[in-house]
Amino acid sequence: MFEICNRRIDDKRSELVLLTQALIQIPTINPPGDAYTPCAELIGNRLRKRQFDVQYIRAHDTPGDSDTFPRTNVVARLEGKRPGKTVHFNSHIDVVEVGDDWTFDPFSGEVRDGKVYGRGACDMKGGLAASIIAVEAYIEANPDFSGAIEISGTVDEESGGFGGVAHLASKGLFSKPRVDHVIIPEPLNKDRVCLGHRGVWWAEIETFGTQAHGSMPFLGDSAIRHMGSVVNAFETELYPQLAQKRTQMPVVPEGAKQSTMNFNSIHGGESETGAGGKPDDYDGLPSPNVADSCRLILDRRFLIEEDLATVKGEVTSILDGLKSDREAFDYAIRDIMEVLPTMTERDAPVVEAVSQGIRQVMGKEPEYVISPGTYDQKHIARIGHLHDCIAYGPGILDLAHMADEYVVIEDMIESAKVMCHAIHVLLEAR
User: Fold this and answer.
1) How far apart are CA 295 and CA 177, in angstroms?
2) pLDDT 10s digits, 197-210
3) Predicted pLDDT at 118
4) Is the N or the C terminus of the chain less surrounded, counting Cβ atoms within 10 Å?
5) Closest CA to 413 of 116, 157, 171
6) pLDDT, tens digit, 9 for 90 and up, residues 171-187
7) What is the pLDDT of residue 242?
8) What is the pTM of this model?
9) Are 198 and 374 in contact (CB under 8 A)?
10) How far from 164 is each of 88, 91, 184, 358, 388, CA to CA, in Å?
11) Which of 360, 333, 355 is nearest to 345 (CA)?
12) Between the CA of residue 187 and those of 145, 166, 394, 404, what are the distances in Å?
């Protein structure tokens, strides 16, 4: 069986490249959520031709959903000839903004030196294409398979996944008895099995002031200066503490084995698009104002050894200290997102199945890792209560979100063979 699957995947090399290119050429940039529907339809139309039952599920009333930017997900399912387990491959179709410094057209899907280039090539349209080819090869090699196979293309993973996997999980699409095993083809390198991820807490901190004329700042109170005191306190008090926190989780890369915190943004005073709603293309001078509000978005990544209440308390204790020590200082804090760390057991069926595939295809022992950032496994675990879930796919982790992002064609081929092996082990195990 495995030799037949391998030959079929080798024969589908050109098809795999063309599919990857077609996916890249649809610019599913998030935010705002461009072109989700045509990308979902590309996947659905292909799988319907292979006898899959295809559903398009829009996540109404989730963040960002609108008639202009509908959160359109696709879920395809093929029933086998006999009852059995269900294996589900889940990939997100959204990509991050392009940014600068590209030497390739980011949505061309250009092939050069055995690589497919483009935004999303690595994260994670190459993995999506590899999973589709793996499933098609398996069905061709074993048309009488047991159980069922599902493939989904979901949205908004880059902005939390609430319009994608979280929405579908709330409808029971990632829970037993419908689904037993989930593989997410994120780019964690082809010889790695990713068991889970660190935790995350996003929050918005706002400092307050009093507006006044910029020539007489003593008549007002600058919220930006208050925020400066917050940043300074974090630098001198909190960051040294975070550097001392280390985990036994096999997190990659090495720097992510400690607790981290990033400032995603700081906005204070006049809007970047202009006070009073002036247009984005306005290039005139600002007005002289003391800022009465300043907002900071923090992104705190924490370890399985840490407690979320303690993580939050480290921040609020600093803010409360400033409130006691700094004249006129006041703040508000708002939770945006919180996700606990997750780690699938090493002896879980999906881990063992993919590990066997890596050994057979690559002739080496897999490396077991934890992702530095969260991905949609968080929703499958917390909402779907399904824990036989991992990330495995082609792509070099460090290339995600970079300029000149690419996926190596041979890596997609080998990953597809591993996935095909895992399908057979999971569906035909007795």
Assistant:
1) 44
2) 999 999 999 999 99
3) 98
4) C
5) 116
6) 999 999 999 999 999 99
7) 97
8) 0.90
9) yes
10) 15, 10, 13, 29, 19
11) 355
12) 28, 20, 5, 15
Closest CA to 296 of 371, 233, 374: 233
| Catalytic site residue from 123, 150, 157, 206 | 157
Q: What is the CA radius of gyration of the chain?
A: 24
State the chain's mean pLDDT as an integer.
Answer: 95
Backbone φ and ψ for 251, nearest 5 degrees, come out as: -75, 140
405: helix, strand or coil: coil
CA 99 to chain CA centroid, nearest Å: 18
Annotated active-site residue 283? The verdict is: no
Interatomic CA distance for residues 213 and 368, integer angstroms: 58
Enter the DSSP assignment of 222. -
In which residue are the tokens 């209560």 written?
385
221 assigned to active site? no
* Pairwise CA distance, residues 387 & 358, whole Å: 21
Structure tokens, 371:
């992702």
- Residue with token string 């981290």: 260
Domains and CATH numbers, the chain: 2-197+341-428 (3.40.630.10), 199-272+287-339 (3.30.70.360)
DSSP 36-74: HHHHHHHHHHHHHTTT-EEEEEE-TTSTT--SSS--EEE
